[in-house]
Q: What sequence folds into this?
């Protein structure tokens, strides 16, 4: 019909051609709708509907503007949005957030009316609303910043393939780093001032440490297991200089300053620090052997406070041929075998140990 408004158009096993505009309160088709103009649906004219029900596929060559919702009429069905040319074939799909007073260019994903993931465009980040993010594949990212807790229930490997049996592992292949003074090449804790959140005023704890290694208890399920050299911490050896690298004092373990206390100690090879002095000298925590040259005059070696060096051992030797004596003097009122001083003539030596109170005992 031409120039006629109808309330209902039903097309069964035939074709409806619309040349101009089509306005209908209801349109039901079991075959094709073809628009021959240059409108917004298919290749044809403009069509405005209150409700549109399609039994088959709809092909839209231009834009589709929807004021309401796009939903699936099957209660247990899945709404598929595919970027492919047919069916549910995949391709790129762009979700572009519109201008909005508070959520400009944002994207939200909801489940049961609750936001479970959202793109916050103003902050340039994805917010998963506290939900877990799980993947069995590889996540490629630049610098990863975590502002909250990071909980890993399995292995962490840096640099290469996962090492079987290791929880935290740095593998060959990690990006090269510059070897800097006072910076751990593989693992580093920066010197800093730490705030201690005590449970209450005057709280006392037995052990306070920056790094703590608990006692591992190992069990074997099924067969028996034996380890001949088990250790809580194992250091394989000192660093080795290779191509174009010279190491002058390589050490497997190095404490730069401060008192170190070991409850039990066994050494296969033991090297203790020894210094040579030709003037009066105050012994330090890093000393063990002190060789004294008194050829230029009598010399005095002053000991550290016994209270600060409980168990410390010092060996002091008058090392150069001379008639001058070396005097060992305690700090303040500290004593050496309960005398204020001890005298060491050439070529003798004296070995003393602090009781941690006020006396150095001769051994």
A:
């Amino acid at each position: 019909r031409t120039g006629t408004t109808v309330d209902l158009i039903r097309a069964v096993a035939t074709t409806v051609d619309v040349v101009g505009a089509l306005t209908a309160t209801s349109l039901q088709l079991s075959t094709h709708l073809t628009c021959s103009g240059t409108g917004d649906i298919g290749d044809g004219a403009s069509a405005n509907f209150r409700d549109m029900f399609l039994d088959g596929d709809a092909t839209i060559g231009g834009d589709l503007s929807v004021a309401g919702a796009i939903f699936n009429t099957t209660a247990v069905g899945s709404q598929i949005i595919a970027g492919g040319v047919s069916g549910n074939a995949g391709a790129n799909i762009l979700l572009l957030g519109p201008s909005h007073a508070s959520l400009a260019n944002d994207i939200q994903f909801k489940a049961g009316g609750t936001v479970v993931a959202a793109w916050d465009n103003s902050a340039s980040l994805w917010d998963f609303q506290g939900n877990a993010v799980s993947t069995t594949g590889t996540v490629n990212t630049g610098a990863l910043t975590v502002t909250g807790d990071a909980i890993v229930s399995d292995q962490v490997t840096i640099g290469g393939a996962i090492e079987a049996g290791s929880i935290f592992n740095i593998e060959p292949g990690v990006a090269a780093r510059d070897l800097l003074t006072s910076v751990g090449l593989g693992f580093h804790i920066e010197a800093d001032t730490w705030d201690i959140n005590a449970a209450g005023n005057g709280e006392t704890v037995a052990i306070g440490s920056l790094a703590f290694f608990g006692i591992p208890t190992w069990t074997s399920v099924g067969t028996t297991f034996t380890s001949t050299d088990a250790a809580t911490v194992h250091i394989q050896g000192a660093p080795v200089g290779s191509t174009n690298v010279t190491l002058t004092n390589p050490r497997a373990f190095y404490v730069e300053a401060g008192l170190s206390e070991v409850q039990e100690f066994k050494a296969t090879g033991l090297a203790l620090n020894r210094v040579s002095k030709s003037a009066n000298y105050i012994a330090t925590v890093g000393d063990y052997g002190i060789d004294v040259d008194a050829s230029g005059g009598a010399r005095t070696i002053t000991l550290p406070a016994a209270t600060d060096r409980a168990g410390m051992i010092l060996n002091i030797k008058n090392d150069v041929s001379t008639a001058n004596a070396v005097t060992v003097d305690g700090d303040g009122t500290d004593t050496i075998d309960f005398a204020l001083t001890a005298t060491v003539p050439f070529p003798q030596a004296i070995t003393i140990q602090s009781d941690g109170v006020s006396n150095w005992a001769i051994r």
The mean pLDDT is 79. The CA atoms of residues 83 and 94 lie 9 Å apart.
